[in-house]
Specification:
This protein is of the alpha+beta class. It folds into 2 domains: about 140 residues, Winged helix-like DNA-binding domain superfamily/Winged helix DNA-binding domain (Arc Repressor Mutant, subunit A), CATH 1.10.10.10; about 70 residues, no CATH class. Helices cover about 45% and strands about 15% of the residues.
Amino acid sequence: MPTNELWPGQVQKAYFTLDQVKALSSLVRSEVFYAFSATEPLSSGDVATATHRTAPTVRYHVNELIRVGLLIPVETRKKRSRTEEAYVQAMVDGYTPRPPFEKEYLEEMHRGFGAILRGIERERASALAVANEDAEFYNLTNFRHTFLKLTPERAAELRKKLNAVVLEFLEDQDPNAIALHAVTYMSPLPSESRKRYREVTGKDLKEQEPE
C-alpha cells in the first residue's frame, strides 16, 4: 500500500497517550511494536520470526498493543488449516506532545527511551557479529557520534533535515528488501541543560539518571 494511503482505522499523525507510553516502556513490547509497519500488514508469526521471540510471547504483547490503540487488525489471512490476523501500526507518525509533561508521563517516556536503546544495543550486537563473517553486511549499519556547536536556529534546521531524510526513504520502500531500523537523535549536552535550567528557574538542575 502506498504510504500516502491509510488503512481503515489508521491515522496519519497522533500523540502517544500515557497508556501507550507505558506499554512501550517494556523492552520486549517496544521491540514487538517497532517490528510492525505502518504500511505492510504483518502477523504475530511474522514478528515472532523477525524478533526471534516465541509466538505466544508476541501474541501476548500484540494484544496489549491493540488494547492501548497502537496496533490495528487490517487483514485476515488463511494459513494452511487456520486463519491469522495481520496488523499495522495505528499511526503513521507517532509523537510525544510538546512540554510541559506530567510527572508520570515523563517517567514513562524515560523508561520507553531506555527500552528503545536496549533494543538498539541488541540489534547492533547481532549485526556486527554477522559483519565479522560478511563484510558487506556492515554497510547496512551506521553510527555517527558528533558534537556540534549550533545556534538554536541552526539546530532546528538540522533536526528538520534529519527527519526529512528518513521520511524521504520511508516513501520509497521495497517490501522485498532488507528491513532496517533507522533512529535520529539530537540533544544538548548536560552542561548546556544545567546552564539553561538555572537561567529559567534560578535553581540547580539535579543529576538526571535514567530509570
